[in-house]
Amino acid sequence: MRTRVKICGITRVEDALEAVKQGADAIGLVFYAKSPRNVSIAQASEIASAVPAFVSVVGLFVDAESVFIQEVLASVKLDILQFHGDEAPSACRQYSRPYMKAIRVKNGTNLVQYAHDYADAKALLLDAFSEGVPGGTGLVFDWSLIPKNLSLPVVLAGGLNAENVVVAIEQVRPYAVDVSGGVEVNKGIKDAVKIAAFMRGVSNATI
């Protein structure tokens, strides 16, 4: 089975289309005001409308108010929700949409318990833990902390780039990898050359 790819933190239509052209399976839109990759509802709607069939549009939220998420859903064509804060399972389920739960991994993180608690999630997205920061840090965590017997698919994130994605895939064997800063020229601005190099790395990994 090939490893899927999500390119997150898209802020421009042209970057979304470049990601699709290079073979990305999903793009991510960040709805978190504190992020340098935050998009407005109007921006997101334009980007999502430009994405062709068979590419998923993911909306990322961090402890967002329900009314805001509903506002986004009313205007933006999202295929899956990604919850990157401390949302309880019941909060993730209330929108009757497929969702992923992001977990910031450190020593002692019980990923088996998370997989049980969020059993109806489509995947666990595993990112690096950094105090006070919900994600997008560019940090790599210790992949050996990921148990082999997780009951949910793993989307591996955290500091991935063209230089380390082969090793990451071969060690973790995730369902998908998620990249943002590793394919950027500036925060929120993607680089076609870096996207191409990342996709080659994914293709070259032996699984």
* Basic shape: globular
Give the biggest sheet: 8 strands, parallel, barrel
Gyration radius from CA atoms, angstroms: 16 Å
CATH superfamily, please? Aldolase class I
SSE order, one letter for each helix or strand: EHEHEHEHEHEEHEEEH
Number of domains: 1
* Spatial order of strands in the largest sheet: 1-2-3-4-5-6-7-8
Helicity range of the residues?
25-40%
Low-confidence stretches: none
Strand content: 15-25%
CATH class: Alpha Beta
CATH topology: TIM Barrel
Label the CATH architecture: Alpha-Beta Barrel
* Class derived from helix and strand content: alpha/beta
Number of helices: 7
Mean pLDDT: 95
From the N-terminal CA to the C-terminal CA, the straight-line distance is: 8 Å
Q: Number of DSSP strands?
A: 10
Fold and architecture overview:
The protein has a single domain, classed as Alpha-Beta Barrel (TIM Barrel). Strand 2 (26-31), helix 2 (41-50) and strand 3 form a beta-alpha-beta unit. It is globular and about 40 Å long. The strands form two sheets. It has an eight-stranded parallel barrel with strand order 1-2-3-4-5-6-7-8, surrounded by four helices. Strands 9-10 form a two-stranded antiparallel sheet. 30% of the residues lie in helices and 22% in strands. The protein is α/β, with parallel strands linked by helices. One of its GO terms (molecular function) is phosphoribosylanthranilate isomerase activity. It is an enzyme of class 5 (isomerase). Pathway: Amino-acid biosynthesis; L-tryptophan biosynthesis; L-tryptophan from chorismate: step 3/5. Keywords: Amino-acid biosynthesis, Aromatic amino acid biosynthesis, Isomerase, Tryptophan biosynthesis.
